[in-house]
Amino acid sequence: MRSFGSDNHSGVHPSIIEALASCNADHQIAYGDDIYTARVRSIFKEQFGNSAELFLVFNGTGANVVAQRACVRPFNSILCAETAHIAVDECGAPAFMTGASLCPIPTPDGKLTPALIEPHLANWGFEHHSQPKSVYISQCSELGTVYTCEEIRAVADCIHPHGMFLHLDGARIANAAVALGKTFKEMTTDCGVDIVSFGGTKNGMLMGEAVVALNPALVPDLKYLRKQSAQLCSKMRYLSAQFIAYFEHDLWRKNAEHANSQAQKLRMRIREILGDVFTQQTDANILLLKLPQEIADRLAKTTYFYYWNEAENEIRLVTSWDTTEQDIESVIQALKA
Fold it and tell me: Quick one: pLDDT band at residue 337, thresholds 50, 70, 90?
């Protein structure tokens, strides 16, 4: 099966498989006291700055939960876009695990701005209302749009005077970095982000994500929160070895560049056939578009995709690190038919 349903549907890059096989030799101390995890801690400091502290976890939801638990207490609220992953696709885990309430905010493009956030910065000290403490943004957003560094800095500057934290969910952070032409440090640490969920699963890794604390105030409790959240991996070398391979020779960049470029090719080819049917910019590797029901039904017979908004006949197509020219051509031929 070839799929445009999600970049989670793609396989694992051969270099990652090789890294897993290589680290499988001999024994290593468990729970992160191994040579591979020591190396990957250094890598993340190289990528995000010396203030970065790394906590590897199993998956993206786990990363988001652990990160938010470091930021909030049960009487707090977490501000996010109404399309945010933590609000839509995590089965209530962030609210359940933190005890804090989510405050979803409508956005036209999946991105929060100071103007959208400011009306919710209220009721300080009022015991009958949850106290805003954290803002969650996704890079890329769930709509495929990308925050510029200036936009991220504006959000940080808006909330930091209130003692709030900025959490960036980077499930597709590599795609965003490539789209912006920025380093990870430039679009996180340098922009005032306090904590990052760093993902590689959508970009060629097998499993494993990372919580990267950039604000030293969030570090002390994270090792306990990770364990309590059932996200501490005993044989951590298998997570760390993947990240080492991911960063060596810029594999993360090559994979993301390919996925992004294939998305642009697909968008251009679809536009040639159907015109401007797109509902959002294609900043990275996600395309959102509206199709007449008959065309969508026929496309579904040959191409795997998800409806984003079924009532509006809006579908989502996602390209991956291994999307081929033949994959794109199959979509185009189905639309032509």
Answer: confident
CA-wise closest residue to 255 among 4, 2, 13: 13
Domain 12-250 belongs to what topology?
Answer: Aspartate Aminotransferase; domain 2 (3.40.640)
Q: Are 242 and 208 in contact (CB under 8 A)?
A: yes
Average pLDDT, the chain: 96
> Considering the entire predicted model, what is its pTM?
0.97
For the record, the structure tokens of 203 come out as: 């970009």
Q: CATH says 251-336 is which class?
A: alpha beta
Q: How far is CA 321 from the centre of its chain?
A: 15
What pLDDT, on a 0 to 100 scale, did the predictor assign at position 251? Answer: 98
Write phi, then psi, for 101 (nearest 5 degrees): -90, 145
- Which phi and psi (to 5°) does residue 335 adopt? -70, -40
Neighbours of 157 (CB within 10 A): 13
What residues contact residue 284 under an 8 Å CB cut-off, 6+ apart?
140, 144, 146, 172, 175, 176, 178, 179, 256, 259, 260, 263
Cis peptide, bond prior to residue 103, ω within 30 of zero: no
For the stretch 191-220, pLDDT in tens is 999 999 999 999 999 999 999 999 999 999
Tokens 């956005």 correspond to what residue? 107
Domain segments of the chain as ranges: 12-250, 251-336
DSSP state of 217: G
